[in-house]
Amino acid sequence: MSIFKKTIFTGFSPNLTTRDVATALAYLFFPLKWSGINSGKKVELVEKALKKYFNVKHAYVFDSGRSALLFALKTLGISNGDEVLVQGYTCMVVVNSITQSGAKPVFVDCEDDLNMKAGDLEKKISAKSKVLIIQHTFGLPADIEKLLAIAKKNNLFVIEDCAHSFGASLAGKLLGTFGDIGMLSFGTDKIVSSVRGGALITNNQNLSEKIKIFQDQLPAPKLLRTIQHLIHLPVFYFGKEIYHLQIGKILLFVSQKIGIINKIIYDQEKRGEPVNFYPSKLANSLADILLSQLKDVDVINKHRKEIADYYDKNIKNNRFNLIWNNEKIKSKNCIYLRYPVLIEQPEQILAFAKKKGIILGNWYNSVVAPLGIDLEKTKYVPGSCPNAERLAKKTFNLPTDRNISLKDAERIVEILNNF
Ligand SMILES: Cc1ncc(COP(=O)(O)O)c(C=O)c1O
Asked: How far are the Cα atoms of 167, 408, 412 from residue 10, in angstroms, in the given order?
């Protein structure tokens, strides 16, 4: 890693702006702001902004996408023994929400584009199936028409998992508005981020009333937890700036070890167990940060597409399979949360790039990601989603976020072409 060139990141809170860092510091250090750390009017304003953006009647925010998903499932009346269909090539926290609702996850294989395979969905539906979760992986709209038709034929409720796809659309209609409920995430690595946060959107009055009851019953966030999320912003901002000098790396490592910044997924969650500080309401100060980010969302997504387009046109090394560089994908309004690439043994390119100061992404390196989770707890039956397993072994991803300049993209492409 060179100390003369700044490190390029794929994860590591990619949405950070100086504006958000200033907001976080104001809440942390101005006594006049302290009363607004957990409670205030910003949550309501976020819900209003979401309703306007998605043109939906109802929006409710939560502490995270995983909590939002849990309450979406509860709202749909999940009870013990019900089955929830979800694609392989997903995240452990999605599976945890399903198991915590009392349901059993049933995994459906995915297509080569990383989204759910309609043909396999039909095979996995049983008399116990109650809900279908449609994930729009990395911002690519799933084959929604086919999947919705199958859901309708089989009387399944549909939750759209839009954790990766805020702002993506199909035929002019925003993702999240096709199913019964849309789930959004504002976690550190998502399209817009308040470090932690999530939401549910719906047009269904009956479902909306149920979601509101769950939301009203939630405890306020723990103050120390909110402070930890606020500290996350300056620590990551400055840590990344000086990462190439090694001090930043140490700062981030130590901050995480001693717990002053949060983790995307905790060890308990990797074992399929709940953490004791969620679910809760969303903190007012985090909603404040989110409000500013929401104003930028279309600009951020346009930038993501431009960077993805650059990768499409300039990665020439045949060892890499650019699975989204084709007309079918380009005809969809994908917003490229990350740009997925396939290669045998992706660990090698990840290590090669790291030596050159580029930290590439390893989402999703397991059929239920990340690697190292307790797969038995997920109820995944090995071999039941062969394509998802194959893709998980081969994928790595490139950054597209607002902090990646065209010059950064050039550096990434050069590394890939020389590999
Ligand atoms: C596909 C998918 N759905 C849902 C979630 C949950 O979102 P959150 O991190 O806000 O809990 C994630 C988290 O990374 C995810 O990748």
From this structure: 20, 11, 11
3-state helix, strand, coil in the chain (%, to 5): 45, 15, 40
pLDDT of residue 1: 62
Tokens of 60: 């409710």
Task: State in Å: Cα 265 to ligand 1 middle.
Answer: 10
Buried/exposed 240-260: b ≥16 CB within 10 Å, e otherwise = bebbbeeebbebbeebeeeee
Q: Is 161 in the pocket of ligand 1 (CB under 6 A)?
A: yes
The rounded Å distance from CA 190 to ligand 1 centre is 8
Ligand 1, pocket-test mutation among 64, 87, 91, most atoms within 8 A of CB: 91
Q: Higher confidence at residue 164 or residue 278?
A: 164
Closest residue CA from atom 8 of ligand 1: 65
- From the number of C-beta atoms within 10 Å of its C-beta (0-12, 13-18, 19+), residue 381 rates as exposed
> With b meaning 16 or more CB within 10 Å and e meaning fewer, what string describes 108-126?
bbbbebbbbbbebbeebbe
pLDDT digits (tens, 9 = 90+) for 8-37: 999 999 999 999 999 999 999 999 999 999
Predicted confidence at residue 79, as pLDDT, reads 87
The pLDDT confidence band at residue 276, using thresholds 50, 70 and 90, is confident
Q: Does residue 96's CB lie within 6 angstroms of at least one atom of ligand 1?
A: no
pLDDT at 277: 86
Alpha carbon of 161 to ligand 1 centroid (Å): 8
Q: Confirm or reject: Cβ of 63 under 6 Å from ligand 1.
A: no
Contact status, residue 189 vs residue 164, Cβ threshold 8 Å: no
Q: What is the mean pLDDT of residues 68-92?
A: 97
The answer, yes or no, to whether any atom of ligand 1 lies below 6 A from the CB of 176, is no
Question: Does the beta carbon of 65 sit less than 6 angstroms from any atom of ligand 1?
Answer: yes
Mean confidence (pLDDT) of the chain: 96
Q: Is pTM, for the whole model, over 0.90? A: yes
C-alpha span between 243 and 236 (Å, rounded): 10
> Does ligand 1 lie within 6 Å of residue 185's CB atom?
yes
Q: Is the CB of 350 under 6 A from ligand 1?
A: no
Structure tokens at 327: 């007309």
Please report the pLDDT score of residue 19 as a whole number. 97
